[in-house]
């Protein structure tokens, strides 16, 4: 095999990759965490790719789960650092945000357990930690000289914006929804193909929620439509695996926001995604620069709507006692679960921020004008467009859900909208000031 060695100022780039199965093998608590069990359906993985530039190594691990927690991040980074000595700041951890994912929030589970609610499968969570460590270490240990390409192509019938009044565009079902306005979307699939001495992987970025199998009370574990696209592509191409990098999808969905998911929806969207990736693969250019890496860590102010710990505990206590009373009296409580889950999430934020500030990090991995930017939270697509407008000379691939589940990050035009789906203040961590600082921090990283 002919291997092109990239040299820039005397530097040689290497890459290594590995994936580890982190699937549950039995029914497991789902995202709502209470009275919500999901069945194994498709395997989920921790997928890692490492880059080396002389003596510097940067590691990216994508987990096919809904998000990450402080506990998960700390355990995985410590484990990889112990075995490889890689700088923990050079480890980028992110979730694909598939809503068909088990419950992962360890701190929340601890709070819920005080009321007798056992919502986290600890053995499975340990499997995620061990799998992430193994994938990262194996990727680093498999480093070899590499070639690298990038490309892009537009999508069709995949992504739609959460427009107001609320509609969900569907490629398969419900004529009214299928033909509803798509809204403002980023319909571009961006791909990077990395080839080393053992094989190749594809990184694919799209600003779209992975919700084809259901948004809330999904009943099955799955990586969602990116897996279906990967499966189709593997019938035509020889590559190791596909890493899904979710872009600014805070207000953008895949198809109809089906409550319980739809095979028809997921398969159709997966097929359309495969077509777009295939088109991007046919339109690639060589990346002829080795990488540079930078990061910034900062504490950002949480919104004024985030309570102090005492108040947050009192609110969660009331929701928990109300559900316990219904359970004890054999009364239905399913309609109360979402509000209980929300109170638990708000308590989580209060505990991590002490009702004041939250620690976050942003990273940039650049190959000349090609910039991979990793940020926390579910960014609105308007924020990505603003960033691209600010730096028109840069090819920016932005990936969200990095370092911490920061919830929704709206743009300035949506700051004053607090009463419709997606921008409710109860579904945010940062206030307007915190969002503004996050945008400024990310912008400064690209200068």
What does this structure look like?
By secondary structure, this protein is α+β, with helices and mostly antiparallel strands. It folds into two domains: 1-292 and 360-447, no CATH class; 307-353. It is built from ten helices and 22 strands. It has helices spanning 70-84, 106-113, 122-141, 175-178, 225-234, 263-281, 309-328, 334-353, 381-390, 432-446, and strands at residues 7-8, 11-21, 28-29, 37-40, 45-53, 56-63, 91-95, 144-145, 147-154, 159-161, 188-195, 200-206, 220-221, 242-246, 252-254, 285-286, 292-301, 357-367, 370-374, 378-379, 395-399, 408-409.
Envelope shape = globular
What's the main sheet like? 6 strands, mixed
Kindly, what is the distance between the CA atoms of the first and last residues, rounded to a whole number of angstroms?
A: 38 Å
Helix content: 25-40%
- Helix segment tally: 10
Overall structural class, as computed from helix and strand content, comes to alpha+beta
Please indicate the count of domains. 2
- Percent of sequence in beta strands: 25-35%
Q: Whole-number average pLDDT? A: 90
How many distinct beta strands? 22
Rg, Cα atoms, Å: 21 Å
Low-confidence stretches: 1-10
Summarize the structure.
With 447 residues, this protein is an alpha+beta fold. It has helices at 70-84, 106-113, 122-141, 175-178, 225-234, 263-281, 309-328, 334-353, 381-390, 432-446, and strands at residues 7-8, 11-21, 28-29, 37-40, 45-53, 56-63, 91-95, 144-145, 147-154, 159-161, 188-195, 200-206, 220-221, 242-246, 252-254, 285-286, 292-301, 357-367, 370-374, 378-379, 395-399, 408-409.
